[in-house]
Amino acid sequence: MRVGIQISGRGSNMQALVAACATADFPADVALVISNDPSAAGLEWAAERGIKTAAISHKGMEREAHERLMDAALVEAGVELVCNAGYMRVLTPWFVDKWHDKLINIHPSLLPSFPGLDTHVRALEKGVRWHGCTVHYVRAPVDEGPIIAQAVVPVVAQDTPDALAARVLKAEHELYPIALKLVASGAAPVVDERVMLAEGVVPYSVCHPGVAS
Ligand code: GAR
To answer: If DSSP codes are grouped into helix, strand and coil, which group holds residue 7?
Structure first.
């Protein structure tokens, strides 16, 4: 499956997906890394590795007009599945519908808890004992959509938002390739707005080492 990765910044999740796609028998290839920010560090990282990149600034553009340009670049690159990896633009229903069930996102919380921004600060404020990340199919409401996979990390005493973010990010880098593999191999179809894992597939979640049995 030809994958397009949408980024807005450093692109560490994109790097994890690129690494996974380079492994033997992985069912996806990265056809394009695309950003709404021409200065996104991840673009340079990808270009240096010979991956096709594109940058289309959203500045001064209507949201949908910008998305139509992003969409045209994805289509031109032959992309079949779009992975948002730190893509920080809210998507219009037009884009979300165009890529229905062909658009996935990673979010740094255990959805449906903590949609939106500043998830680690809010998790600490609420005093949750477990936090994590979610890969889900994208629907028009922000951070909603059928859940493909989740990873769990503990919240520990004296945690800071930065320490918690780093722990979650490590889990993100493990989780996103697993979720992409499920989707690209056809093992995670959406039925009645839930992901029904194919028979025999163990629903995957990862725990912070030392916490999981
Ligand atoms: C990641 O933590 C990702 O989950 C989050 O932004 C970070 C991007 O890091 N995404 C969102 O908050 C989307 N709402 P990266 O550029 O190093 O992958």
So the answer is: strand
Nearest atom in ligand 1 to the alpha carbon of residue 117 is 12
Pocket lining: 3 vs ligand 1, CB cutoff 6 Å = no
pLDDT digits (tens, 9 = 90+) for 69-117: 999 999 999 999 999 999 999 999 999 999 999 999 999 999 999 999 9
As given in the structure block, the two tokens for residue 71 are 């969409």
The CA distance from 205 to 16, in Å, is 17
**What's the predicted TM-score (pTM) here?**
0.95
Q: 23-58 burial string, b = 16+ CB within 10 Å, else e?
A: eeebebebbbbbbbbeebebbebbeeeebebbebeb
Cis peptide before 112 (omega within 30 of 0): yes
pLDDT at 149 over 50: yes
Nearest CA to ligand 1 atom 14: 107
CA angle 50/19/149 to nearest 5° reads 135
| Residue 190 main-chain phi, psi, to 5 deg | -95, 125
Q: What's the pLDDT at 49?
A: 97
